[in-house]
From TrEMBL:
Top-level EC class: lyase
InterPro entries: FPG_cat, FPG_N, H2TH_FPG, Ribosomal_uS13-like_H2TH, Znf_DNA_glyclase/AP_lyase, Znf_FPG/IleRS
Keywords, comma-separated and alphabetical: DNA damage, DNA repair, DNA-binding, Endonuclease, Glycosidase, Hydrolase, Lyase, Metal-binding, Multifunctional enzyme, Nuclease, Zinc, Zinc-finger
Name this protein carries in UniProt: DNA-(apurinic or apyrimidinic site) lyase
GO process annotations (BP): base-excision repair
Listed cofactors: Zn(2+)
Lineage: Bacteria, Pseudomonadati, Pseudomonadota, Gammaproteobacteria, Lysobacterales
Domain Formamidopyrimidine-DNA glycosylase catalytic: 2-93
């Protein structure tokens, strides 16, 4: 499943294609949404924004569409009147004079009055978004110390969207490595310096990934710039740690694969 940085980059591409341009055609496959097709034609999309792994498309007429890609959903951008070759099922299509944005395979789609969309059950249960630039490491540290989260094991906590929205599997491995914290810990087991290091890494790593990581390659190598985000431990089981040469370990923690360095992360 795509994580916060991937959803944010996808939303950027969708927004660049259609924001501020009148919709010339609208298609919904779900029967419950088809009543909105005529209403939305002629309107402009005002914004396309992610919250965690959900996407919100706001229309000028006062409606907002919620969608979640889940495991198989994917958005595509195409020229107006064109459709990519795919065996996927087209669920939503918004088309302007020049571009079309197309949602395939997703099933979690609903329309809300913009003023009420925050009441969506998934959105209402989310924590702060790790890519929200207004979120500070001090606020993250406060959440780590909160009774609701302090007793949770870090492998499960760092996947819990109620803690921080947008986190995911590769991010949790890289965050714990950056903070030099072993995954078997709980927040309540950590000292002040560790809490500070973890709270900073929980913001820095996802934001680095969003800024510089365009696609996954071998071992996370993506761009050619010196400061490009790349995997230091994720998907590197058995390879030497770049810091200490210890072999990277892979373990199944919270039902997902997690990678870590036993020497660096004590």
């Amino acid at each position: 499943m795509p994580e916060g940085p991937e959803i944010r980059r996808a939303s950027d591409a969708l927004a660049a294609a259609v924001i501020g341009r009148p919709l010339r055609s609208v298609h919904f496959a779900p029967p419950a949404l088809q009543k909105y097709e005529d209403e939305l034609v002629g309107q402009c999309i005002e914004s396309i924004t992610p919250h965690g792994k959900a996407l919100l498309i706001r229309f000028e007429g006062g409606l907002t569409m919620y969608s979640h890609n889940q495991l198989y959903g994917i958005w595509k951008v195409a020229a107006a009147g064109k459709r990519p070759k795919t065996t996927r099922s087209l669920r939503v299509a918004f088309e302007t004079d020049d571009k079309a944005i197309l949602l395939y395979s997703a099933t979690d789609i609903s329309m809300w009055p913009t003023k009420d969309v925050h009441k969506h059950p998934f959105l209402a249960g989310l924590g702060p978004d790790v890519l929200d630039e207004s979120l500070t490491s001090a606020e993250v540290a406060e959440r780590l110390r909160a009774p609701r989260f302090a007793g949770r094991g870090l492998p499960a906590l760092l996947l819990q969207q109620a803690f921080l929205a947008g986190m995911g599997n590769y991010l949790r491995s890289e965050v714990l490595f950056r903070a030099k914290i072993a995954p078997q810990q709980r927040p309540r087991d950590l000292g002040k310096r560790q809490i500070t290091a973890l709270s900073k890494a929980l913001l820095v790593v996802p934001r680095e990934s969003y800024r510089s990581r365009n696609k996954r390659g071998a071992h996370g190598a993506v761009t050619r710039t010196a400061d490009a985000f790349r995997f230091r431990v994720f998907d590197r089981a058995g390879l030497p740690c770049e810091v200490c040469d210890t072999a990277i370990k892979r373990e199944e923690l919270a039902s997902r694969r997690l990678y870590w360095c036993p020497q660096c992360q004590v």
